[in-house]
Design goal:
The chain is α+β, with helices and mostly antiparallel strands. The protein has two domains: 3-115 and 255-264, Diaminopimelate Epimerase, Chain A, domain 1 (Roll), CATH 3.10.310.10; 122-246, Diaminopimelate Epimerase, Chain A, domain 1, CATH 3.10.310.10. Helices cover 18% and strands 41% of the residues.
C-alpha cells in the first residue's frame, strides 16, 4: 500500500491507491488526508482493474467514511486508468452509485456520461435562528441542498451557513452537501460548495454542479449546455447527451499531480491539543512557588 498518486479534479484533490493488497482503514485515510500534518486531500480512492475496459473505484471522504459517489474523483480515476494504459480513451468506472462511462477529451480533461437525477429537485425550507432558508434538495448519487444566491458568491457565507445546514435534522443522520449557486445567464453558472466528509468548502464539487444544473433546469432559468465556474477557477460543462439519449455529460479538469511512497509517519498523527485555561496556569505557578 506504500505507492500513492496525488490527483486533482478542478481543485478537488485526492490520494489514489492502485490495487493495494487491502483497503486502507478509516483511521489511515483520516490521517493521510489531514493537511499540514500529513499528505492532505479532500478524499481517497482505491482503483482496481475490473475486466476489459472497466475499473472499480472505491471512495472515502477525508474523514475516513465511504461515499457512494464523487464525480471529481471519478474523473480522476478515469484519467489515472488511461495513464496506466488500462484503457485506450474510454473506460467504465464502477462506483458505489453504479457504472459511469468516462471519455478522455484531451490531456487534462475527462467527460463522464451520467443519468440525470432519478427524482426532480424538491423545494425545502430550513429554519435557523428563526430565519428560513429556501432551497432545493436533490440526490445525485449523494445528497445536495442547493441555495440560489443571486446577490453574488464573493461574500456568500459558505463556511458559516453551509456548516449549519449540512447537519440540519431535516436532512437526516447522513446530512447533506450544501451548494451556493448564482446563474449569471441561462448557460452560465457560478457555484461554491460545502462538502460533508471534508467538513469545509472545497474548490470544486462535481455532484454539486449536476445538482445545481438540475435545479436551474427545473426552474426554467438554465439550459444545456451549461458552463459552471467553480471556486478553484476551473470551468465545468454540463452537456446534453446525443439525440434520443437521456444521459448528461459532465466535462472538466482531471490532473495527475504526483506519485510517491507512503511512509509510516504519514499516519502517525499527534492527539488534538488540550489547551490550558488561564486559571489552570495560575494554579500551576502558585504550586511551583517563586524561584530563588
Amino acid at each position: 500500500m506504500s505507492l500513492y498518486y496525488k490527483v486533482s479534479g478542478g481543485g478537488n484533490d485526492f490520494l489514489a491507491l492502485i490495487e493495494p493488497e487491502r483497503d486502507p482503514t478509516a483511521a489511515e485515510i483520516a490521517a493521510w488526508c489531514r493537511r499540514g500534518l500529513s499528505l492532505g486531500a479532500d478524499g481517497l480512492f482505491v482503483l482496481r482493474r475490473q475486466g476489459a475496459g472497466a475499473v472499480r473505484m472505491d471512495y472515502w471522504n477525508a474523514d475516513g467514511r465511504p461515499a457512494d459517489l464523487c464525480l471529481n474523483g471519478t474523473r480522476c480515476a478515469a484519467r489515472l486508468a488511461f495513464a496506466l494504459d488500462w484503457a485506450p480513451g474510454e473506460v467504465t468506472v464502477h462506483t458505489g452509485a453504479g457504472a459511469v462511462r468516462a471519455q478522455l477529451l484531451d490531456r487534462a480533461r475527462v467527460a463522464l456520461g451520467l443519468a440525470p437525477p432519478a427524482r426532480p429537485p424538491e423545494p425545502r425550507g430550513v429554519v435557523l435562528d428563526g430565519e428560513q432558508h429556501r432551497g432545493h434538495f436533490v440526490v445525485v448519487g449523494v445528497p445536495h441542498f442547493v441555495l440560489l444566491w443571486p446577490e453574488g458568491l464573493a461574500h456568500a457565507p459558505v463556511d458559516e451557513l453551509g456548516r449549519r445546514l449540512r447537519r440540519h435534522p431535516l436532512f437526516g443522520p447522513a446530512g447533506t452537501n450544501v451548494d451556493f449557486v448564482r446563474f449569471r445567464a441561462a448557460q452560465e453558472m457560478e457555484i461554491r460548495s460545502f462538502e460533508r466528509g471534508v467538513e469545509a468548502e472545497t474548490l470544486a464539487c462535481g455532484t454539486g454542479v449536476l445538482a445545481a444544473a438540475a435545479v436551474g433546469l427545473q426552474l426554467g432559468i438554465a439550459r444545456l449546455p451549461l458552463v459552471a465556474l467553480t471556486a478553484g477557477g476551473f470551468h465545468f460543462e454540463v452537456i446534453a447527451g446525443a439525440s434520443g439519449s437521456a444521459e448528461w455529460e459532465l466535462a472538466g479538469d482531471a490532473r495527475l499531480l504526483a506519485r510517491g511512497e507512503l511512509l509510516p509517519e504519514a499516519a502517525a498523527l499527534p492527539p488534538p491539543p488540550r489547551w490550558s485555561e488561564p486559571d489552570e496556569s495560575r494554579a500551576r505557578s502558585d504550586t511551583i512557588g517563586p524561584r530563588s
